[in-house]
Design a protein that fits this description.
Elements lengths: L3 H7 L7 E2 L5 H11 L3 E6 L2 E7 H9 L10 H4 L7 E2 L4 H11 L3 E6 L2 E7 H24 L4
Parallel strand pairs: 1-2, 4-5
Antiparallel strand pairs: 2-3, 5-6
Helix pairs in contact: 5-6
């Protein structure tokens, strides 16, 4: 069972993409597209005030017939934001995401934003752990030593 800290260290891209609540939905979409990500943490200074995702864009912007150039991130973001600490486990994060139908969780350490984990990060970690166990069992069954 890995901690969030361990999972963050395995991510190819470090850091967290953020945006201000005063930015437009069009700016948020452009950042997500350029970084090939599905969500941004909405920050006001050092404080997390929301999350904006592709889902927010689809549900709150498109379905409401709003214009992306005219709509502020603060109008479509999800708030308040659930988050985890670096000491939380993969399983705790998966339970939180599943129970609350979320795909992204900001990660805090001593109150500061240090990362963002997605459901994809967690699934990748579970698959990696399962693959390791399978390899160990195969070695045990065949008598081979790594």
């Amino acid at each position: 069972m890995k901690s969030v800290d361990q999972i963050l260290r395995t991510k190819a891209v470090q850091g967290v993409a953020t945006i201000a609540p005063s930015a437009t939905a069009q700016e948020a979409a452009a950042v997500m597209a350029s970084k090939r990500i599905g969500a941004l943490v909405v920050m006001e200074g050092d404080t997390i005030v929301g999350m904006v995702s592709e889902r927010d864009m689809a549900r709150k912007l498109v379905q409401s017939d709003r214009r992306a150039k005219m709509t502020l991130v603060s109008d479509i973001m999800t708030s308040p934001v659930m988050y985890v600490e670096t000491t939380h486990t993969n399983e705790e994060c998966m339970a939180l995401m599943t129970d609350n139908r979320m795909r992204h969780l900001p990660v805090l350490q001593r109150g500061k934003l240090v990362g963002l984990i997605s459901i994809g990060d967690l699934v990748k970690d579970v698959i990696s752990e399962q693959q390791f166990i399978i390899e160990q069992l195969e070695h045990y069954i065949t008598g081979e030593h790594a």
